[in-house]
Amino acid sequence: MGxxxxxxxxxxxxxxxxxxxxxxxxxxxxxxGFSRIDDxxxxxxxxxxxxxxxxxxxxxxxxxxxxxxxxxxHIKEPLECRQLLIDSIREQMDVGETAxxxxxxxxxxxxxxxxxVGKTTxxxxxxxxxxxxxxxxxxxxxxxxxxxxxxxxxEWANRAGVEMIGGQEGADPASVVYDAVAAAKxxxxxxxxxxxxxxxxxxxxxxxxxxxxxxxxxxxxxDAFRETLVVLDATTGQNALAQAKEFxxxxxxxxxxxxxxxxxxxxxIAVAIQAELGIPVKYIGVGETIDDLQKFDSExxxxxxxxxxxxxxxxxxxI
Length: 319
Ligand SMILES: Nc1nc2c(ncn2[C@@H]2O[C@H](COP(=O)(O)OP(=O)(O)OP(=O)(O)O)[C@@H](O)[C@H]2O)c(=O)[nH]1
Ligand SMILES: [Mg+2]
What we know:
This protein is of the alpha/beta class. 51% of the residues lie in helices and 13% in strands. The relative contact order is 0.16.
């Protein structure tokens, strides 16, 4: 691993401490506590995975897969299941290669999600990241529901050193997007990031609003690449999964941002989202500052989750 990557990995390992304590410690005590592989053993594992927010469906699939592997490979020792389980979780999370095409295209990124999940903060962090890559970024404050929302986004725009287009409180979000698209075209921006209001989670409102905004973009900016990111608060566990499902019914989601992964015990929700919905988690939020957004990688995630302190060597072996 390169130095930078190693740093990321360490932060991920430490950010997942509570999740690891929640899921992996429980699992390990099952592996050590059982002397044979029987129904009770599987039941306890199942319970641990569900308690760890991996979701009922993903858990069932993981356990099924484990049972098959145990049978095929004639495994007798509970401890030998550890690696098989890790493999199963990783396989369940597979959504193919995650694309970040919008970063390299002229694009419009929509950021949606319910109240307080971290949409505005994520946009600020993303703007900072793209700016560091020398991209020209414009923010659209399409959350016109509260005046404070625009001000909060303006602070992030200043922090990231990018431009923001806003509207009056109560203005039509589609008109803000219209203005922002005009600005993006005039300034030859690479990426236009649109903040939206959390109250839109009422399905009908959201659908209407998105339709209207999409029409504006289709008409005014037809060549722009489109990305729709749903932001979910990892600390809400199963609620986050339910929200993702709802948004998925209303619009074509291209990716998930899972925020507040720092210090939550519910990081297992990343497994549930990818396994149940097949939508890639593209970024995770690991804190409140501009540098606290990481690209998500399932392999690294599973490695970090099952990381053992005693395996101190940097190349943490075959997980
Ligand atoms: N610890 C932590 N806090 C975060 C993270 N992302 C966002 N927050 C905090 O979550 C709170 C809400 O963030 P906002 O970005 O305002 O959320 P929002 O979705 O825009 O909220 P509304 O506009 O009210 O719907 C703020 O206090 C953020 O600092 C994260 O990854 N980790
Ligand atoms: Mg906001």
